[in-house]
Specification:
Layout: H1 7-20, H2 29-42, H3 48-56, H4 63-71, H5 82-99, E1 105-110, H6 117-127, E2 136-143, H7 146-154, E3 156-157, H8 167-173, E4 174-177, E5 180-183, H9 185-188, E6 191-195, E7 210-214, H10 224-237, E8 238-245, E9 259-263, E10 268-272, H11 310-320, H12 337-349, H13 353-366, H14 371-383, H15 387-400, H16 405-417, H17 421-437, H18 454-465
Parallel strand pairs: 1-2, 1-7, 2-6, 7-8
Antiparallel strand pairs: 3-5, 4-5, 9-10
Amino acid sequence: MTQPTSTALQQLVVLIREATGNVIPTARLSFLEEVAQRRAQVTGRGSLEEYVRALAAHQIEGEWGTLVSLVTIKESYFFRAPQQFEVIVRQVLPGLARARAGTRHLRIWSAACARGEEPATLAMLLAEEPSLNGWTWTIVATDLDEEALAGAKLGLYGERAVSQVPPPMLERWFKRRGKLFELDAGLRSRISYQSLNLAHAPFALPFAECDLVLMRNVLIYFRRPLQRWVVSQVAKLLAPEGYLFLGASETLWQIQDELESVDLGPCFAYRHRKPQPAAVPATPPPKRVHRKPPPEPPAEEKPRWNGETPRDWSVSRAATAVAPAPEPPPAAPAGGVQERLLAAARDLAENRIEEARRILDAILAADPSEPAAHALVGFLHDLCGRTEEAVGAYRAALYLDPALFQPRVLLADCLLRLGKRDLAEHQFREVLTLLTSGREKALGLFEGLPLPDRERAQRRCRQVLKGG
């Protein structure tokens, strides 16, 4: 049984959020309490309550830096999310090289760099890119954790951190130091490390515009208002031709309108929206022909998924049902996450898109690590015909729980509709592998949604992989 959270611990959670923007998830509260109790003893405070009061009053010099270092997650490694680095080398850098041919200089920002694995990965790739021979480039790497930045400047990493570095690059850019690996000093000198808190303005970077920004797995720790503010500030710093990369489980949907997602194949990035052409005057709509609506289907008939898109399913329901009388909007659902997910699913089943969106927004604002909520957001996008956004949401759900087979089938069908058959077939094979191994997970009993069950998922996968 979960123990109630103490008032002092609740206050500490709020203090950390206000100071750093980080939302401490419920699962880490016991860890936070243990750390805070230990720091209370070290700093001579007799209790957690006294420690939190002193921290709020800034009465313990240097303590905020120590606490942040202890409670923030710094687990990383070189070439994390390799598909993004592959896209940066093959697609992003050639485009930026054309845009910057006049100055022959690139400006890159690695936000929340922790111990420096991400900016160092970028530095290796830039140093080995033939098209950038003779160019200058600047990488600024920022974090609010001074201890992590000190480690990044040292450039010493364990075997786990460098395990994904290709052996030739490991040989070129690292020296063995006992059990550790030291990053090449010349490469380190091309990275500028500085302290920066994304929750507070201004962002004092050494340049006015960034050609490439990596802000991965940062927004998931912020509440929605802070997410909007941070993204608005980053958008101001992003060059007109620049790219922004987020973590696989992050999206800017319903957060901002300045940047649009760009499908780069294995992953997405964000760029400034292109100016829209002037609207063409609309022609008068044709006169409506009134027809008698077809009879309503039997009450016991339920929609069954057969490989069609949720949008097709929605349209087919609308075409075969008598228009119901307007209903008052449902009250906001109370209860836990599962109850609210069920309410959102009911709204989607009845085509109450806006109501479902509000519920899902609230769930993800409170806990962006809920995979079922991301999956239902993908389903919502599917219903509205926003296939690319649906792909991003399904991928976010699978990043958080790769064993969910239903979002993977729906993702594969989205990729088919986008003409990306190779990627789609890969996802269908992944589904079959999951189902064969018995390691699959289902989203849950979302009654009314045409989600594929185990049997229909297998049938759909085999149909496509056989050329259907």
